[in-house]
Amino acid sequence: MTPRAQPRNARPVDDLVRSVARRWRTLAWLRGALAATAVLAAGATALLLADALFDLPAAWRAWTRWVPLLAAAVPLVLAARQAARVAEPRTAALLVDASDPDLAHLVTTLLEADLSGPVGAALRRRAATRVAGVSPRRVVPWTGRREVAGAAMGVAAVAVLLATAAGGAGGVAARWFGPDVSIPPRAAADGAASPDGAGAVVAFGSASVTLAPPAYSGLTDRTVPLAGVVEALPGSRVQVRVAATGGVLDARRLGGGEVAVDADAEGWTATWTVTPSDRGLDLALADAGGAVVDRRVLALAVREDRPPDVVLELPAADQVLATAAGRMPVRARVTDDFGVEGWALHWVRSSGSGESFSFDEGSWAWEATDVRGDTLVGTFSLDVAGAGLGPGDVLHLRAEAVDRNDVTGPGRGVSATRMLRIATDEQMAEVTTLVGFPIEREREPLLSQRMILLLTEELLAARDSLHAEAFRERANGIADEQDRLRDRVGEIMFLREGGADEPSAAPGDPAAPPQPLEPPGHDHDGAAILDVNLDLVSAFNAMWEASRHLRQAEVAASVPPQETALEHLQRLREGERVFARGRVTRPPLDLEAARGTGEVDEAAPAPRSPGRAAPDGSRWLGALEAALGDAAGDGPGADPAAALRLRELAAAMLSASDGSVEAAGSVATAADAADAGDRAAARAAVAEAARLLAGGRARGSASPPATARDGVGAAYLARLAQRDADEEPAAAAAERPEDEPAPFVFATARYGSGDWDSAPLVPSNLAHSLAQYTSLPVDSEGAVVDLGSPDLFRYPFLFLTGHLPLRLDEAETEGLRTYVERGGFVFIDDHNHDIDGAFHRSVVSELGRIFGTDALQPLPNDHELYGSFFVFDEGPPITGHELSGWGDGLIHRELFAVEVGGRIGVLYSNKDYASEWSYHAENKRFLALDNTRFGVNVLIYALTR
Amino acid sequence: MLRSAAVVALAGLALDVLGGSGPAGPTVLEARSGREAALVDALLAPVPPHRVVWTDRAGPDARAAWLLSPGPAAPVLTLPVGPVPGLRVEPPARAVAGWAAALRVEVVGAPGDTVVIRHADALGAVDSVAVPLDSTGRGTAGLGVRPAREGWQAWTVSAGPDSVRVGVWALPPRPLRVLALVGTPDPESRFALRALEEAGASVEARVELGRVDALSGSDWSADALDVVALLGSPPLTAADRAGLESFVAGGGGVVVAPRAGDPDGGGALPAAWGMDAARPGPTLPAGSAPTWTLPAELSPLPSAPTDVRTVVLDAPLAATAVATSPEGRTVAALMQPGGGRVAWVGLAESWRWRMEGGAVGAHRAWWRGWAEWAAQGLRQGVVVAGPGEVLGGQVAVFRLETVRPDARLPSRVAVTRPGGAVDSVDVVIDVREGGEPRYDGTSARVRFLAPTPGAYRVSWDGHETGLQAADRVAEPDPADRSLLALASSRPERPGRPVPPGTDPTEGAASREGPWGGSTGPGPWWGGLLAVLLAAEWAVRRWRGGP
């Protein structure tokens, strides 16, 4: 309502109304301010107390420091609202009338009524008298005693807390409102001039780093100057002490994580515990205006605590025994950089065949442990008979050790795995029987060549104590064993050739005297047989020679040919691993007939996702080149500004993933040199940083460097060089005609443990599918390649499966790791379909050991793998084994993968596609829906990404 | 008043005529380093010399160079090449930060010798190369460089006691944009794509899978793409071929890597490239190591013997073979049809270097090198030749030339000086030898003073170049590019280097000075007199006089 225009004689009332309204507003605001002060002080008191008691983290402080201010705004808002209530004169008039009932609404009446005329004049006169006695203080009394008390108490509490806090009020203000952490300058703390006052210089002084390694390492604490690169173990407690003459400190851990900073009158102390991702510390010192005026950068190289190095020395090779009897010596050694916490002999026993396997596992403690320097040697006598092994069972043995690392570990080291297999009747017919030696001397079955050699040496050692006749008799006995073994070798030679015509002097023919076979290369009709069985023939002939000497009691003379025979047998065994397997039998495959017969209506290849650039530190070279100008400086003497810029660059390099810690350390060193005025040293340090980043960029040599970066590559290059020296055509060239495009080869990985060849039909079946759906040239045979062989790298795609535990030896481990790092694609499938199966557990364990525990991750079901050719909206298709409840009875919703550079390097499935696709390709026509279509996706992904 | 002035002018003209016409100073002035003071005096004389012959390898100091620059008081400057220098280095014509480029080096020495040439950038030594000299004692080499950042990049090249400093203005870094058309996928194409991506390229790939139409709809333009990679002999339609031809004509790059054993071998390419008549020949087996003569921009092969199959070209191309088989057949070739670039890489199994040899980095650099070479065609239709590094206080001169009929030269360019100030500078269209303006406008020059040391950026319509003004002469340079630029910067009287052994004064008398036949102030006196007389006549008539 707008008040009417009042005649002049209404002014006393107007004055009263205005006074009342003014007092109302004043008191409302005053109470609000007092209440706000009280709330602000209470909030600040609470935060300061909490900080004093619990040392609130910086993030907490950053989030809560504005809460008291926000809370204090509430009373102010309420006060504003209260003050606004008397915005109109009528409200104030009503207030006056309400304060004194005797007024009888006189003030309101005077304010709103038309007071012209004699009645109005009379009323005005009366009102003037009546109103004169009304006081605004009585109308609007003061009622804010509670607010006054609250504000006073709060301010007092805050004052006490500020007075007792480290660094005083300035320190608290800097701690809560500085960039991160702040203390007042020393001069201010001493009560002298402020840092910005005359003569005060805000700058860092001396700086040092104290490293307290984790207790398990046994290393002692050390203190070094803050310069260059400092090495530290994860778990180390790092304390950076930096003196300063004032300013505000911003401490930032490079690599993530919090850092605690304590301030005192001399400077700051930053403390934190090193994690594997740490790269250093950036300390920026700002002046009162917020400008960074000095900087220190710590380049921290986090040293890796290597897992224990474990070597299983005995048994030196896999063993196949005829019977589960006797004792087998086991010996292993372990070393570690900071000590071994524990180690044992781990075993996995598997029984069964085909799809039906059972597993159990456990550990044996070493019977004796010997300390040789920093190496532990453990020995164990394995009671083979007590191991519960039956024919066909396999016992996997490997030594495992854990170190004392209780920070990022414990680190776990494993040795190569040795298999102890009890032969079945069928396996007795294989050549392995010749290699493995029985534990005890038995008449049946055959003695191995090594055992015969041991018996011979035993006889030689006992020669002086034996009568001549006894000596001859024992020599004849050994000769008998040698003949039996030789006969068996002869049988196997011709067995391997599939029943080829036997030579006239067939071994084992009692009617014919034993004769040696012709050596390889001799030109006669049996050349083909001899070429194939080169090692067997050589062993056969050496055995013949040894037997001849033994029967003539020339026991010592029989030893060299026995050793020759053993050497050939071992070579044969190395070439064919545990079993001298023949070629995996695969049905004939007519890919040309299959070409283009598949239904591709549902094929809709998804666009290829963009790949990821490899980390390349060369992008820093430009910044380093610009930094050279800083390092060179503009004139003689120290150049703090240049040093500051160089340290900023060092901090930026440490913050980035592709910035080398060592190069950043060199830049920090250049900054120190610039600080010291040593221009030449500064330039040299920057150039050194460039050299470290570019990886041999500054070669300065007319000769190009070698390009092989690892042992496998070096072996390959050496092989090529040797081939060129020998002027022999490359094997690869001989394998296919020159003008034919290289077909895709489905390579199956062969590994030492387990049953790598459990799914021999999968390669041909998928090759058939590729021919059906695509135009890719495909090799119908596929290839089998040893995981530890350099030949592995000739095949960009690799399939690995099995039922038994996957235990990779050193060469296989290195081969798989290198293969994936170079860009190879490995598809691993658990032929058991059992998450509690030995294959699954061992694969997960081995992949974790090789690529890191977190490397194997679930693959999202919308990954481009599921759209690389056919579209699988639901992710990996379900297998028949999952539906029928085999294995673990689960339907696995996803696959797993190890990615390298944004691409799948290892694809792992425990859905048992190996069983799903294990059938003759021709039978695909009986399926309503081809279940190998997902296999096509896997292959297309592997060939295009 | 006017009449008095006219009389004074007439008197001046008379004195001038009586004082003798023609040049008062020497026609030719020989100068050399250390004697700049005399040169400066001569140049500041009322009548400067017609020609200055600089007779040693070091350039003049900044003040003398400034006075020698084109202007009202500058004479025509001719630089003698002098004795053949031991080392000549040509910087790359164009460079992009992070992309491969090359320095061309020519070295002279004793016939049959082998000279080791080293080069370094601001951060230190980069690489070295051994150059065998031929029977005439000359040898050439390329030095691969990779500018680390945008702006001015300089390198120092040395061979024995000789040292040369060259530089180039590097354009801002950006990732390569590659469209890969892949035929039947195989390990070679797979690892080539991976190598390009690992090198930071932005790769879009379309893969031919036989019965699934994955290649259709290929759409490329030189604005959106740098390189089209034809990997594994993808089938191309007539429209594809026309698009490719247009792409290359517009400055785009193509890398052709045919599949081993493919009957077409990538031969179904645009006819304009001449590859229809040059069908690939048979695939050579692994172990047939080719002989490589790669340009320095391309990364070298691993030093191991090559164990990969190669696809050879039967017929010679209008291209440069950079790899030949032991039988002399072309394995790799480079060609530049129109403004673009096409590279033929007949190496069918380079992935074996990576997988079998472990040379992951070398394989990555190999493919990156081919793509970067192909990407550096003449996209914008204008080539720029800059003076390189000049001394502070000198005049910088850039020469602009169109290389495509549709290209147009700008009328003005923006010059960003050290500190960020931007000037607008006119572009002067070149004239022909006889003094007539070039009617086609295909060549022009930009001149501006670089008074203070620092980087000067020159830009127009998306083009960019620049130079570095130094505060001192960093290295002696027998063919100082800035002075050569000065010599050639006078459009009406282009200077030229005098071949070694010729008399630098020869023909000087027949050459006119910069103001025509007379070098004195006579024309000015005459002009002033005429103006005054005309004014006096006009005033007289206005007042009613005769």
The beta-strand count of chain A equals 27
Of all chain pairs, the largest interface belongs to:
A-B, 82 and 75 residues
Helix content of chain A: 40-55%
Count up the helices of chain B.
9
| Mean pLDDT score of chain B | 71
The main sheet of chain B comes to: 8 strands, mixed
Could you tell me the radius of gyration of chain A in angstroms?
44 Å
- Provide a count of the helices of chain A: 30
Describe the global form of chain A: elongated
> Given the helix and strand composition of chain A, which structural class is it?
alpha+beta
Strand order of the largest sheet of chain B: 13-12-14-15-21-20-19-17
Q: How far apart, in Å, are the first and last alpha carbons of chain B?
A: 18 Å
Give the radius of gyration of chain B. 29 Å
Looking at the structure, what is the overall shape of chain B? globular
Task: Please give the largest β-sheet of chain A.
Answer: 7 strands, mixed
Number of strands of chain B: 29
Poorly predicted runs of chain A are 1-10, 180-200, 429-443, 496-532, 575-585, 696-710, 727-736
The share of residues in extended strands of chain A comes to: 15-25%
Can you give keywords for this protein?
heterodimer, A: 945 residues, alpha+beta, seven-stranded mixed beta sheet, six-stranded mixed beta sheet, 40% helix, 18% strand, elongated, disordered N terminus, B: 546 residues, alpha/beta, eight-stranded mixed beta sheet, 9 helices, 29 strands
Provide structural commentary.
Chain A has 945 residues and is of the alpha+beta class. Helices cover 40% and strands 18% of the residues of chain A. Chain A has 30 helices and 27 strands. In chain A, the strands form five sheets. In chain A, strands 22-21-23-24-27-26-25 form a seven-stranded mixed beta sheet. In chain A, strands 12, 14, 15, 18, 19 and 20 form a six-stranded mixed beta sheet that branches. In chain A, strands 1-6-9-10-4 form a five-stranded mixed beta sheet. Chain B is an alpha/beta fold and 546 residues long. In chain B, helix 1 (2-18) packs antiparallel against helix 9 (522-542) and helix 2 (36-44) runs parallel beside helix 3. The radius of gyration of chain B is 29 Å and the shape is globular. The two termini of chain B are 18 Å apart. Chains A and B meet through helix 19, helix 22, helix 23, helix 26 and helix 30 of A and strand 7, strand 8, helix 4, strand 13 and strand 16 of B.
